[in-house]
Amino acid sequence: MGLSVAGSVVAICLCFGVTYGSEVARYDNYRVYEVIPTSRSQLKLLNDLKQSSDSLIFLESGINVGAKFNIVVAPHKLADFTEALHNEGIRARLLETNMQKSIDEEKQRMVAKRARGAFDFNNYYELEDIHAWLDKLANQYDQVELLEGGHSYENRSIKGVKVSYKSGNPGVFIEGGIHAREWISPATVAYILNELLTSTDPKVRNIAENYDWYMFPSVNPDGYVYTHKKDRLWRKTRTPYSGGCFGADPNRNWDFHWAEQGTSSRCQSETYGGPYAFSEVETKTLSEFVASLKGKIQAYISFHSYSQLLLFPYGHTHEHTPNHNDLDEIAKATVTSLAKRYGTKYKYGNIYDAIYPASGASVDWAYGTLDVKIAYTYELRPGSGSWNGFVLPPKQIVPTGEETLDSLVTLLEESQKRGYYENCKDC
């Protein structure tokens, strides 16, 4: 998605700083369709549409015949879109006639909540509120240390915390919000962080106190702010590029088999991998921070949404990692654990096969460059049958956090059983 995102409404950046123009992207009368291709020619058409038009936003897409596509269609593009589908014999199911309605309702809840001044887990929060909460935790708990994992193009801090109850623990790195519009990701990271400090559950206390936690709720701060201020569906960073284009996909920008699979060379694309690996200051500075922890980090967990998937390397190739069987068995136990509380069903597998080819991702980089052999990506609620995955109702934050924490306990238990934390020499 490039500069123009809403027909005649354009989000404008006045300068290379943090001041944006007065216009806000709106999605009035934008329709959401579910489309499932039944032939290779139908699949090709959908992928061509994905690359060719900024007025179509693909919320969910696949690479195979029979995969589900959820597509947001601008009003002025509706005739062309439906005719293209008709000519190819593709059937589309209308899921929503006005996407802006959900966005407006979400905003109203946030305004009301912020007016009351509380920080809890019944709503989504802006970046400054999350950072203020992290500051508060550092002042309140001796076990919490503030960290800066890097900075953004607009010079915002990639702020996080380390939680450590004793020396010598293996480390777990938690990354949230790398895709700006996936608000359930920072919210889930914050929920888990709070539970590590406050829960009395013996299993939670065990992982809280026997691992060091490096937790970063929002590693794409410019993009996250932009979703709150200007465009709720923005995904990328905010680096300005030529031709009035902004941002690269920060989860296609890491220097491990960069730009080989599942990425675009078009700046307007939502999967634009950037002009070169680590072109985005966010990924460059965060990677330098993570690399400084080499030997201390034994697990790398990235939270995304949506589709209810648990993924592990590789994304750039169908070839399996050396410890693929372990990662697969751990994932199976993890999603089984996650389902126990609310019945939420996850699928699992290596990135390339389970979702789609995608190179330049953070978990692949951690696995392949830093030798972090426990590396997973969660695609959180909702499942693939929902169209509003990025505008998930806030009443689902706590249930999502609860079941995810349940599963994280299992993930660490299962990987510990297999000896993955025994050689933590630098911990």
UniProtKB/TrEMBL annotation:
Superkingdom of the organism of origin? Eukaryota
The record, for InterPro entries, names: CARBOXYPEPT_ZN_1, CARBOXYPEPT_ZN_2, M14A-like_propep, M14A_act_pep, Peptidase_M14
Q: Name one Pfam family in it.
A: Peptidase_M14
Residues annotated as catalytic: E379
Q: Name one GO molecular function term.
A: zinc ion binding
Homology family: Belongs to the peptidase M14 family.
Protein name listed in UniProt: Zinc carboxypeptidase A 1
Which species is the source of this protein?
Aedes albopictus
